C-alpha cells in the first residue's frame, strides 16, 4: 500500500476532501494546478494525528515531546509580562531574520552541542525546521535535481522536497548511520544518470525514524565526500542535545562552516507550539536563503520569539534538557524491554542512544501499512515504514515513538501490537 | 533605480551580506542555487524596516497597524491563562488545517464582511496571508505561468510570486479599481503570446499601496470575466473591515464560492505579531492547497491560534475594529489635509475610503527611489512606487502610510517631505 493509497483509505476529514476532489476531478480548475501540486503528498504522520488523540488509544505514532515537565504556571506569567510590557513589539511585525537576542541565544544552544563559531548574523529564525527545509528545497533545487538522504528519513522533509519536484535518492545506513562508501557509490551512480545532486539531507543524531546515529568517526568523512563533490549538507539536528548518556556528538557543522547549512529547532528542547527553529547558513549563501524565508512568511512571530527568548534567558533550560534526557532514556528502556518481552522471532529493532524513536523491522514480505488498521482496532497506533522512504514501495518496517507516552502505556501499547505483528510474521512464514 | 539596485545601495545589514555574497560570487556553491533563487528579491518595504525605527524619524513607510488601543494588560492575562491551563495543547504540535474553533471564528469575521456561506472545513489557517500567497503560487504556477495583478499591487505578493518564476503581468486601474475592459484586453494580449494565465491576484478593498477600491458594480464583472477565462481569483482582503464610513463592500468571494480563493488576515483586525491569517479555498481545490500548507509549516502555532481565538471569543473585537476605523479615518484626513497644504502643483494623490495607504503621483520623469535618501536625511521615510510593480522600471509614484503615526507626526512628516518633492518637480520642469 502506498502513501497516497493510505491517505485515501484512512477515515479522516482530509479523506472526505479527497473524495470531494475526485468527484470534482473534472472541474475546469483542474488544469490550473502546477506540476508540483501533483507531487505534494499527504504525510502519514499527519494522517494518524487525528486518530492518535482518540481517548483510550495508546499512540506510539507521533513524535511529540513531553511537555508536562515545563513550568506552565511560570511560563504563563512570562507570556503575560511580555504582552503587558512589550506588547507593542510582541504583537507587531518584526524583522525578517528574527530577533537579534534569539539569534544570539540560538548560538548558545549550538555551543552546548559543539558548534563554537556560530555568528548571529548568519542565522535566520524560521517557522519551525519544516519551513527551513521548504526554503532549502526552494532555493537550491530545480525540478529533477537530486537531494540525497538517509534511508529511512524524516517524512516531513520528504514532503517538503517532493513538493518542488525534487528527485530524492536514498543512501543506505547501517548501525553507524550513513555508510561513507555507499554515499560515494550513490553519488557516482546518480551522476552517471546525468543528474545534478544539490544537497545531502541528513539527521545525523538519532535519525527520525530510525533512532540511528552517525558515528563521530564517519561525520568528517561524510563532510569531505560532500565537499569534494560540491554537495551542500543540510544537517537537521532537532534531537542532538537529547543524548541519553555522555556528551552530545559534535554536529557536522562544527568545524565545517562552509559546507553545512545547519537546522536547529526549539521544538524538542522547549516546545513545538511556538513553531520556531533556526537555520545557520554558510555566509556566502545567506542572503538568498534569508530573502526566500522572508518571501514565505515576512517574519517569524515576534510574540513566540520573545517567549522562547525569555525561556532561554530566565529559566534553567539546560536543566530541562537534562531532565528530558533522563525521561526519554527511561521510556526508551521501557520500550526496549517491552519489545524484548513481546516481539516474535524474526522481528528486530534499533537501540537508540537518544531522540524519540525506535525502528522495527519485520521479515521480508510483510507490508506494515495494512497492519495499522489492525493496530488501531487493538487500541494502539504506529507509523508504517513506507512513509519514511521516497517512492511507492511497500515496507516491512515501522516507527515507534516513546517520547510522549508513559512507561506503563509504552508497555501496554507494545503488548497490544505484539499479536498483530506475530500474526503477520506467521503469515509470511506460511507463504 | 531598480528594486535590486536600491537594495544594494541602502545601508542595511543585508547590504553587508550582499557585499559578502558578491565577494564570494565565485564560491563553488554558486552553481547549487536553483533558477528560482535568482528571482527572489529584496522587499523595499523590508529594506526600510530597520531605518523606520530610528529615533526621531517619522515613518510614513510601513503599513503597521495601530496597536496602542489593544487592551494589552488583559491580553497578557489571557495568554497567561492559555499557557497555565491549556499549555499542553498550546505548546504542542497541532493539526495542519488549524484549530476548528479559530476556523469557525474566521467564518464569523467573513460574515461581518458579507461572506455568509463559508464553511470551517474549507479553511486553512496560515502563517499570515503571506504564507497563503506563497502556497498559492506554489500550487498553481509553473515557471512562466502568468498571474495578473493590479498595477500597483502588494510588494510581498510580488516577491512571493516571482520566487516561483511566475510571470506577473499588470492590469490598469482607475479610481474605481481594476478596469474590466482592460482586464479582458490584457487576458487576450497575454494569451496571444501563448502564455497560460492561472490567477488574478487582487486586493479589491483599499488596495495596498494605492488605497483604491474596486467598485461594487465592477466586482461581479471581474468575477465573470475570470470565470469565462478559467482564471482563479486570489482575493486578498486584509483591510476589508477597515472602511471608514458605511458598511464594508461585499468581497468578490461572496456569492462566488467556486471562483475565488479568499485570503483573510488577523494582522489588521487584531495584531500582525501572531502571524496568522486564513485561506477560504474552493472545495474542489482544498486538498492540494491544504497539503501544500502542511508541507511548508506542518501546522500553524497552536499558542498564537488560541490567543486569537480567545480574543475573538472574549473581547469586543468588532468594537476594536470600529474604533480602529475612526482612528484610521482621522489619520487619513490629517494626511490628506497635509498633502493639500504642502504638496506642490503637479503632484496628485488618491483619496481612500479605508485601509492604511495613500498613493502619490509625481510628474512623469521623476524617479522616486533616489528621493528616499533625501527624505531619510530630512527625517521621514516612504516606500518608492517601483516596489509595487513587477519589472525594473523607474516610478514617479510613492506610497505613504497613515496607519501607525499620530496626526501630528503625519503633518510633520508630510511637511518634511514637501521640499524634496517640490525640488524634484521643479527639476523635471526645467529639463
Automatic annotation (TrEMBL), chains A, B:
Record's keyword annotation contains Plastid:
no
The chain positions of domain Aminotransferase class I/classII large read 69-417
Top-rank lineage group of the source organism = Bacteria
Q: Which cofactor does it need?
A: pyridoxal 5'-phosphate
- The protein here is known as PLP-dependent aminotransferase family protein
According to the UniProt entry, its GO molecular function terms are:
transaminase activity
Concerning PANTHER family, the annotation shows: AMINOTRANSFERASE, KYNURENINE_ALPHA-AMINOADIPATE AMINOTRANSFERASE, MITOCHONDRIAL
Record-linked InterPro entries: Aminotransferase_I/II_large (IPR004839), Class-I_PLP-dep_aminotransf (IPR050859), PyrdxlP-dep_Trfase (IPR015424), PyrdxlP-dep_Trfase_major (IPR015421), PyrdxlP-dep_Trfase_small (IPR015422)
